[in-house]
Amino acid sequence: MSFRTEFLDEALAAYIQAHSTQPDKVQQDLIEATAALGDASIMQISPAQGALMTMLTTLLEPQFAVEVGTFTGYSALAVAKALPPGGRLLCCDISEEWTAIAREHWERAGVSDRIDLRIAPAMDTLRSLPPEPAVDLAFIDADKSSYIAYYEELVRRLSARGVILVDNALWDGHVANPDQADPTTEHLRAFNAHVIADERVLVALLPVGDGLSMITRRPA
After folding, report:
1. Distance of CA 52 to the CA centre of its chain
2. Range 91-123 burial, b when 16+ CB lie within 10 A, else e
3. Rounded Cα distance, 167 and 186, in Å
4. pLDDT attached to residue 1
5. Residue 5 falls within a domain, yes or no?
6. Is residue 180 part of a domain?
7. Tell me: the pLDDT tens digits for 142-183?
8. Can you tell me the distance from the alpha carbon of 97 to that of 95, in angstroms, rounded to the nearest whole number?
């Protein structure tokens, strides 16, 4: 499977993958199982991005993490394997078919007991969470038209040192191309503009994977 994005030279993309921590056996098997889905496999994050998410989880030691958009479970696996004792990951998705692949590989990796998968509209799940700050790490990688809504539900619950990661923030570089005006690009531009204008947070938009926005609370 190729994880190249349009704004990266192919050789440079391969170099990045080769010099980031490599997937373990279960992760590699999950990559191959996802590739067998055909065109849909493009929704899987890159191994280099997964390595970053595992590293951040190790550093942040989140007790409660949330994922919006699980697909076949690679990003969830990257987080769950690094959760501290007692740490939990809540995954929100609507596909029984794709998350069945996730469940199989989570079980093989020995992390299924750390993951609570909710098959339901993500907004319903997020709105059911307690209102007080509780989310230590969140990852948004779902329908782009709802990114702002997902963000607003999560940022108000973000702990003092919590981090929100948002995937596809560069969208193959289209967000910076004024000639690109398709709905998905416009949704992502709107999200990026919304977050950078939010005085509650600090933002770093990173050229990782297809663009990864890293968001945390602004110090009081």
Report:
1. 11
2. bbbeeeebbebbbbbbeebebbebbebbeeebe
3. 15
4. 58
5. no
6. yes
7. 999 999 999 999 999 999 999 999 999 999 999 999 999 999
8. 5
Quote the pLDDT of residue 13: 86
- Predicted model pTM: 0.96
Strands (E), 76-121: 88-93, 115-119
- 1 inside domain: no
- Report the number of distinct structural domains present in the chain: 1
Q: Which helix (H) or strand (E) holds 174?
A: none
CA atoms within 13 A on the CB side of 187: 15
> 64-68 and 88-93 as β-strands: parallel, antiparallel, unpaired?
parallel
Q: Which residues span the domain enclosing 159?
A: 10-217
For residues 8-35, average pLDDT? 93
pLDDT of residue 71: 97
Count of residues for the chain? Answer: 220
Residue 2: inside a domain: no
Write the CATH number for 49: 3.40.50.150
H or E segment at 111?
none
* Residue 186 tokens, joined: 């416009």
